[in-house]
Design brief:
alpha+beta
Length: 179
Amino acid sequence: MVCIRPATIDDLLQMQRCNLLCLPENYQLKYYFYHILSWPQLLHVAEDYNGKIVGYVLAKMEEEAADPVHGHITSLAVARTHRKMGIAAKLMTATHKAMEDVFGAEYVSLHVRVSNKGAIHLYTETLTYQIQDVEAKYYANGEDAYEMRKFFSSAAAGAAKRRNKGRAGAASDSGGGSS
């Protein structure tokens, strides 16, 4: 049995251990601290019945003002012993919900190795991501990455609401009051 829950600072060393065991892209501990201190709502872990972290998702919100509000999945890992159990999808779904509910994200992006067929299947078939672009030599070993995006269901409604609110504000600001 595995529990999906928000990550805490106490989980960071086990998250890093899971990353080192599962992925070729590794991060220094300060990078995990940066994420949990900046976006604590977005980090989730899969914890087994012994209290061992067997999976995690590390995510952030992008801060470019020119773009629509969106999140980015920095890293997702599940221990080999716990794969094919739906854990990765549950971790991602928890983070997606937080991005949408807490930050009002319109979409989420991620990068994945073009050779990682299992992850590509998870992202496209299970989580409904779409390939946006190919980034040449994205990874340290020179491998290309797919840039993928998932648009949230309420994104269109939220964007329309913000546009309409802006129009209503502009209309009331330009109303014919006397000074």
